[in-house]
Amino acid sequence: MKIKLTSVFVDDQGKALTFYTEVLGFVKRSDITAGNYRWLTVVSPEEQDGTQLLLEPNENPAAKTYQRAIFEQGIPAAMFFVDDIQKEYLRLKSLGVKLTMEPTKTPGSTIAVFDDTCGNLIQITQMD
Prior knowledge:
The protein has a single domain, classed as 2,3-Dihydroxybiphenyl 1,2-Dioxygenase, domain 1. The strands form two sheets. The protein has a four-stranded mixed beta sheet. A four-stranded mixed beta sheet has the order 5-8-7-6. The longest helix has 12 residues, at 61-72. The chain is 26% helix and 41% strand. Strand 7 (109-115) and strand 8 form a beta hairpin. The protein is α/β, with parallel strands linked by helices.
């Protein structure tokens, strides 16, 4: 069994694509129109055949409620791994990304959290 695709709900697919590619540095993998929506995925530039992240519209009322609730509770919707969290933190900060947690040491890792502008908190992690 393999994980080939996972998703985050977003309130605006176009805005999400811009943020995830131009700010975070992911690469667009799929962009297929499906009625009023798009099957829109991004991947890591380091693993372009790796796991895809679906930028999924939160049009379903249950999705909106879930997304809002975990955001308000400060729970990240996804976690991405980085090699140098301090460098990534400074890069994101210089781009105007709103960080809700500065790099913080935890058992086995250092983490930081930011707002993806599309309704989610995202955690970045550097393993020890």
